[in-house]
């Protein structure tokens, strides 16, 4: 159990991020926040807000703002018939997954409404119109190749020198999970990012 009430709360939010990886998000966010307070951070893929709180805790500590981007209708593997389908998150009015109300309640409960700003919509569309340099980018969106590569190509060029790139669901062994997050992680290394940490399937990289 964490002594920080915000991290203890984060661990209770429904979601797929293991607690040790969540705590690594907080630790690396805090580190980057100390180097450069008041930065602009972005997470892609929020689901019900578990990672949002782990990152938001660090954003609060450094006076940074965390933009949390998600269309909130779940990715491929969260649709009916797939592994991570959660029927109680379906909106009966249209039969689609809708994690936005749960995400909003999570952020409110964590007291992070003045630190976290939700962006609801397709990642590529937001990227085409939002051009702020990023101090920290967490890619945890869809795992389909086109989606993961679009997130990488659209957003990583915005990371400032010294900024951090965090990628979730990186599995070197194909038996453990899908390829695209691993492929974009390899691309980041080839593009000059330096790996600074690995916890579970989370990779933390730094732009030189
Ligand atoms: Mg993930």
Q: Any ligands, ions or cofactors bound here, and which?
A: magnesium ion
Based on the coordinates given, report the CATH architecture: 3-Layer(aba) Sandwich
Shape: globular
Residue-averaged pLDDT: 95
- Mind telling me the CATH class? Alpha Beta
Domain count, please report it.
1
Poorly predicted spans: none
Q: Percent of residues in helical segments?
A: 25-40%
Q: What is the CATH superfamily? A: Vaccinia Virus protein VP39
| End-to-end separation | 35 Å
Order of helices and strands: HHEHEEEHEHEHEHEE
The largest beta-sheet arranges its strands as 5-2-1-6-7-9-8
The total strand number stands at 9
What this model shows, in words?
With 208 residues, the protein is α/β, with parallel strands linked by helices. It has one domain (5-207): Rossmann fold, CATH 3.40.50.150. It has 7 helices and 9 strands. The protein has helices at residues 5-10, 19-35, 50-61, 100-109, 123-129, 145-155, 180-190; strands spanning 40-44, 65-70, 90-91, 96-97, 116-120, 134-139, 159-167, 193-199, 202-207. The strands form 2 sheets. A 7-stranded mixed beta sheet has the order 5-2-1-6-7-9-8, with helices on both faces. The chain has a two-stranded antiparallel sheet with strand order 3-4. It starts with a helix and ends with a strand. The chain binds magnesium ion. The site of magnesium ion has 4 residues, from loops.
């Amino acid at each position: 159990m964490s002594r920080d009430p915000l991290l203890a709360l984060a661990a209770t939010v429904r979601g797929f991020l293991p607690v040790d990886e969540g705590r690594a998000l907080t630790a690396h966010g805090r580190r980057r926040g100390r180097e450069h307070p008041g930065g602009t951070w972005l997470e892609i893929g929020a689901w019900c807000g578990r990672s949002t709180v782990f990152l938001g805790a660090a954003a609060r500590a450094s006076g940074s703002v965390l933009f949390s981007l998600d269309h909130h209708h779940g990715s491929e593997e969260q649709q009916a018939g797939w592994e991570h389908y959660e029927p109680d998150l379906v909106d009966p009015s249209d039969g689609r997954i809708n994690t936005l109300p749960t995400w909003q309640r999570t952020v409110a409960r964590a007291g992070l409404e003045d630190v976290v700003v939700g962006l609801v919509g397709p990642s590529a569309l937001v990227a085409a119109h939002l051009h702020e340099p990023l101090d920290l980018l967490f890619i945890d969106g869809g795992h389909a190749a086109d989606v993961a590569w679009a997130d990488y190509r659209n957003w990583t060029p915005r990371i400032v020198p010294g900024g951090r790139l965090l990628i979730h669901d990186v599995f070197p062994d194909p038996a453990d999970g899908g390829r695209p997050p691993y492929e974009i992680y390899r691309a980041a290394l080839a593009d000059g990012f330096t790996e600074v940490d690995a916890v579970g399937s989370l990779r933390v990289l730094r732009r030189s």
